[in-house]
Amino acid sequence: MIIDHIELYVPNREQAAQWYGDVFGFTIMEEHRDWAIQNGPLMITNDGGNTMIALFEGSPQGEHQVRGLRRLAFRVSASEFLQFIESSGSWRSTSLGSEHIQDHDKAFSVYFADPFGTLLEVTTYDYDAVKSSLNQQGE
C-alpha cells in the first residue's frame, strides 16, 4: 500500500498548481483535469502520478487550529535538500537560510507555508551529507 494523494484546500487551484510546479516540480495531470469541473480536484504530481496532490477550492487551514492535515512533508536527498534551500529565494521574498534549518539529529528539515497557508516541510534523512555540507559552508 502506498499513498495515492493528499487533499489540500486552496483559494485558487490553478494558482496553487503553478506555485507547486515552480517550487516542487509538480505538473497538472491533464488526464484528470475533468475532475476539476464542478468543485472536484485539480490533480498534480511530480513523479508521473505515483503520488498526487488533489487541489480543492476552499478555505485553507492556514494558521487555524489543526482540523485535519497538519503539514505536508516532502522527502528529498541531501543534494536536493541543499539545492532547495539555495533556490528558495526564487519563490520566497527572503531565502531560507541556516536559521530555518532544523537539525533533528538523524534528519534535517525546513518548515514554511505555501502562499495559501498550507504548512509544508522539506526533509532529508541523508543526515551526514547535509551536516558535512553545512559545516563546510559555515567555515
Q: In a nutshell, what does this entry contain?
A:
The chain is 24% helix and 27% strand. With 139 residues, the protein is an alpha/beta fold. The model has no long low-confidence stretch (mean pLDDT 88).
Class by SSE composition? alpha/beta
Beta fraction: 25-35%
Rg, rounded, reads: 16 Å
Low-confidence stretches: none
Major beta sheet summary: 4 strands, mixed
Q: Could you give the order of strands across the largest sheet? A: 1-4-3-2
How many strand elements? Answer: 8
Shape by Cα distribution: elongated
Number of domains: 2
Average pLDDT across residues?
Answer: 88
Terminus-to-terminus distance: 44 Å
Compute the number of helices. Answer: 3
**Fraction of residues in helix:** 10-25%
Q: Which sequence of SSEs, written as H and E, runs from N to C?
A: EHEEEEHEEEH
Topology:
Elements: E1 5-10, H1 13-24, E2 27-28, E3 42-45, E4 52-57, E5 72-75, H2 78-87, E6 101-103, E7 108-113, E8 119-124, H3 127-138
Parallel strand pairs: 1-4, 5-8
Antiparallel strand pairs: 2-3, 3-4, 6-7, 7-8
